[in-house]
Write a structure and sequence with these properties.
The chain is an alpha/beta fold and 223 residues long. The protein has helices at residues 10-22, 33-39, 58-68, 82-90, 103-117, 155-165, 174-182, 190-204, and strands at 2-6, 26-30, 44-50, 73-78, 95-99, 129-132, 135-138, 143-146, 149-151, 171-173, 210-213, 217-220. It is built from eight helices and twelve strands.
């Protein structure tokens, strides 16, 4: 897996890159926001983003990446920057580490965010979009169109439909959905799952698109 390190400090970036390489990751480095946008590619599996960059506010960069990519983003901030962390999470970052951080903690966080988001990312060979009965689920742009009209979905709602869209016609067990969408095995998220599915059905307006499979979970109708 390839990690894009966005960091203007050479010594920090080099140490990080060396550690991540030893931990089995491939790394790429960008010294500023412009280079980050240039180097972000379909093979980038996570972005480690330093918020203090020379050319652009890291939060703005985060937002910009989010307009076209669902790649996991971990922001790195100083201990005092609580507001920055909140702004970063609101701008679409998946997690953060506080400087100076232990690189082992960073690796654990990278593993957690990629586990959480990877099933939702199309990989080569996956379908980039699924079309069923006038509903288009675009896994790359992370949006759903009904009769070519975009539907406003929350992030979790999209995550749920994205997991189902990867296996049209297959009953996806509830525990698997909870694990992939909430990254937990805690079954009390079941109620939350039901509420999100009900909301999805209402917004998409195709009653039979997401079927309940009694005692198992949910299934997306086959085209
Ligand atoms: Ca910096």
């Amino acid at each position: 897996m390839r990690i894009l390190i966005v960091e203007d400090d050479d010594s920090v970036a080099e140490a990080l890159s060396a550690f991540l390489t030893r931990a089995g990751y491939a790394t790429a480095r960008a010294v500023d926001g412009a280079e980050a946008l240039e180097k972000l590619g379909s093979d980038t599996e996570a972005v480690l983003l330093d918020l203090g960059l020379p050319d652009i506010d890291g939060i703005d960069l985060c937002r910009r990446i989010r307009t076209h990519s669902g790649v996991p983003i971990i922001i790195a901030t100083a201990r005092s920057q609580v507001q920055e962390r909140i702004r970063g999470l609101r701008a679409g970052a998946d997690d953060f580490v506080v400087k100076p951080y232990d690189v082992r903690e960073l690796v654990a966080r990278i593993e957690a965010v990629t586990r959480r988001t990877h099933p939702l990312h199309p990989t080569p060979g996956d379908h980039a979009a699924v079309d069923i009965d006038g509903v288009r689920i675009d896994l790359v742009a992370r949006r759903v169109l009904v009769d070519e009209e975009p539907v406003e979905l929350t992030r979790k709602e999209f995550d749920i439909v994205a997991v189902l869209a990867r296996y049209p016609g297959v009953a996806v067990p509830r525990d698997r959905l909870i694990r992939e969408v909430w990254n937990t095995d805690w079954q009390s998220f079941g109620r939350s799952l039901e509420v999100h599915v009900a909301s999805l059905r209402r917004k998409i307006g195709r009653g039979d698109l997401i079927e309940t499979v009694r005692g198992v979970g949910y299934r997306l109708m086959e085209r």
